[in-house]
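[agent] plan:
  1. take the single chain provided in the ticket
  2. run structure prediction with default settings
  3. attach structure tokens to the ticket
  4. add a short note for the reviewer (M.T.)
[agent] executing step 1
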Amino acid sequence: MKQDLEALFLQLVQRRSVVSSAGEIEIIDFIEEYLRSWDYFLEHPGDLVRVPTENDP
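[agent] step 2 finished; step 3 output follows
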């Protein structure tokens, strides 16, 4: 588990995720894809919702 968390951490910090940038969208896409690979969300895909916010790129 610790190695999995370390690997995830490294993947997250390698992405430039400045607010209102293409990187912000990239990190959101990465996190969504990561969560969708979990068994729970494979069984309940409707429980993971991406909510757009006003003035978001």
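[agent] step 4 note for reviewer: The helical segments are 2-13, 22-36, 39-43.
[agent] ticket updated
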